[in-house]
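Re: beginner question about structure tokens

> Can someone show what the tokenized structure looks like for a real chain? I only ever see the sequence side.

Sure, here's an example I had lying around. Input first:
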Amino acid sequence: MAKRLDHVVAPKLPEGAIKKCSNAMVILKVAVDEKGKVSDAEFVSGYDELKDSAMVAIKEWTYKPYEKHGHAIAVRTSVSIFYLGDGESFPVYMPDGKGGVKGGNMIPLPPGCGSGPVIKRTPS
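And the corresponding structure tokens:
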């Protein structure tokens, strides 16, 4: 799904929602219509304080339309949005099944907060 993203609006971090050296994630279930527009979104998990900003932003996202047998189709997917404690936010793409996400195995923290936690995978 990440490769099909055409336009992304970063959610705003509500004032005081998380501390400067903290991070948070919101996960949404999203329906994308035949034209590539987000037609529905459902809050799945994350901080309640971030729910509204994530829902407002996701409704402005657009995707390149999906096709099956040459016809545009509607699809459903999950979207993870990562909020940095310094007020920035960005989409986090779901793991690719190869052991990680772009950027390595560290979750970034705002400047002056030290290194982020290391993400360790347990072999299945």
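Each token stands for a local structural state, so reading them left to right follows the chain. Residues 30 and 44 are 10 Å apart (CA to CA).
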